[in-house]
Design a protein that fits this description.
heterodimer; A: alpha+beta; 5-stranded antiparallel β-sheet; 21% strand; B: 162 residues; iron-sulfur (chain B); oxidoreductase (chain B); metal ion binding (chain B); 2Fe-2S (chain B)
Chain lengths: 327, 162
């Protein structure tokens, strides 16, 4: 038996109020992360779930060259959207390579952005040393069995990975997150939404308590651009990325004129490879350029013995996806 | 719609609609759909494997779409149409997928089988049984530790082609 309460929010206003009034209340959407952490692993301890699952925050609308995705749209629904299929194919690929169909029918886009790390030490309440759960308690992963952990944005306080596939093309495309609370709305670029651990691994993003993700805006690929998402993993399907890369590129007369690159499986936050993009734009679309971009993307990694292999694997993942989208 | 609770209560009143029948139940607020089906409604065909959304043994349909019932609160399903393995036979005859699973010996211990069948029912509706590779990919949320996978794929393919 658990003493966590449950209330279904009748409308958006009451949902905001029900969470804002109680510092330990949480929004409940698809539940695939929240229920797992609260009821099964018991590493988070909400006072109550405020179920927002039936609020009218569902569906995809197109506004010129942007897509506006309501936060309760499921992963399966977004993957099936015709505009996503035609104009953001690597978003669709990333969605369908994530989780299983059952989970994609439950998991929402807002929840995907806010999913918690799969670090097994974070998810094990028997482990005392976790700076993400208890700041200052240490990091068991760094001296433990690390593999599905981060090498970029990581440091001695925390190497927990942000495991989203979807966020990789979203950061590459400069997606923006619309947030709502009693004071009104604000829009935050996804690349500025997340925080690397630093000395506060427990603070993962800029979201304030009681603030609700209502929409995600995604610019569409420019005409002529090609995109692709490559996910490298330990089994063929239904597994988190060991490394992944999402690339969108425009090539004219053999020269790269526009490039976007996001990385998964390597960052404490969904990783935008800005330096690699600088290498790519203006350069010839060839192996030498791709390798130079990969070297620029994985600079100064923080590795432990279990994650050192990711340095080269991530570079090869980048080279391969760049080769694919330019061939 | 029955209101699925009051703010401070840890008990909820939920109207579960399962296989065409309506069950009003009073539950702990954090009771999963899986536990409600098995322990309160005594519909034990839905199995508890990992209980963490990783194995697919607890797959059911909610409003026609496959979900894992272990990571779903019963309260979230208030008023939704749930279909379990007990609800897929027609006029007392097993579902064609159930017959195909038997014909192809698509199980050994049988523990994952009801989840496999429910997932396959949805897979066919989704139109994702076009090839063996597609079946494997879109059935990957259902694990079988006896590794009856080749026979599971064969059973699904047979029904998809019939």
């Amino acid at each position: 038996m658990s003493d966590i309460g449950y209330v279904r929010a009748a409308d958006q206003g009451s949902a905001l109020a029900l969470v804002a009034e109680d510092p330990d209340a949480v929004f409940l959407a698809g539940g695939t992360t929240e229920l797992d952490l609260a009821l099964k692993d018991q590493v988070v301890h909400p006072s109550r779930f405020v179920d927002i699952g039936r609020l009218p925050l569902r569906g995809v609308t197109r506004d010129g060259d942007r897509l506006r995705v309501a936060a309760l749209t499921t992963m399966e629904e977004l993957a099936a959207d015709p505009t996503v299929r035609d104009r953001l194919p690597f978003v669709r690929e990333a969605l369908l390579l994530g989780a299983s169909t059952q989970l994609r029918n439950m998991a929402t886009i807002g929840g995907n952005l806010l999913q918690r790390t799969r670090c097994r030490y974070f998810r094990d309440p028997e482990v005392g040393a976790c700076n993400k759960r208890e700041p200052g308690s240490g990091c068991a992963a760094i001296k433990g069995v690390a593999r599905m952990h981060a090498i970029l944005g990581a440091g001695p306080t925390c190497i927990a990975l942000h495991a989203s596939d979807l966020c990789v093309p979203l950061v590459a495309m400069d997606a923006e997150v619309e947030l709502l609370d009693a004071d009104g709305t604000r829009t935050v670029p996804l690349t500025q939404f997340y925080r690397t651990p630093g000395d506060r691994p427990d603070v993962e993003n800029v979201l304030r308590h009681g603030e609700l993700v209502t929409h995600v805006q995604v610019p569409l690929l420019p005409a002529g651009a090609r995109s692709g998402y490559l996910k490298v993993r330990d089994r063929t399907s239904y597994e988190f990325a060991t490394t992944s890369a999402g690339a969108a590129i425009t090539v004219e007369d053999g020269t790269i004129t526009w490039a976007r690159l996001g990385l998964g499986g390597v960052g404490t936050v969904p990783w935008r490879a800005w330096e690699a993009e600088s290498v790519l734009v203006g350069a010839p679309a060839n192996e030498r350029t791709f390798r130079a971009a990969a070297e620029a993307a994985i600079r100064d990694p923080f590795t432990v013995p279990g994650t050192a292999f990711k340095v080269e694997l991530a570079k090869r993942t980048i080279v391969r996806i760049l080769r694919t989208v330019t061939s | 719609m029955s209101s699925a609770t009051t703010a401070r209560s840890t008990q909820v009143t939920v109207e579960l609609r399962v296989n065409g029948r309506t069950y009003p139940v009073r539950l702990d607020s954090t009771t999963t759909l899986l536990d409600a089906l098995r322990d309160d409604l005594h519909l034990t065909g839905t199995k508890k494997g990992c209980d963490q959304g990783a194995c697919g043994a607890c797959t059911v349909l909610r409003d026609g779409k496959r979900i894992v019932s272990c990571l779903t609160l019963a309260a979230q399903c208030d008023g939704s149409e749930i279909t379990t393995i007990e609800g897929i036979s027609e006029d007392g005859h097993p579902h064609p997928l159930q017959e195909a699973f038997v014909r192809h010996d698509a199980l050994q211990c049988g523990y994952c089988t009801t989840g496999q069948v429910m997932s396959a029912v949805a897979l066919l509706r989704e139109g994702r049984a076009g090839s063996d590779d597609e079946i494997r990919e879109f059935m990957s949320g259902n694990l079988c530790r006896c590794a009856a996978y080749p026979n599971i794929v064969a059973a699904i393919r047979e029904v998809a082609e019939s």
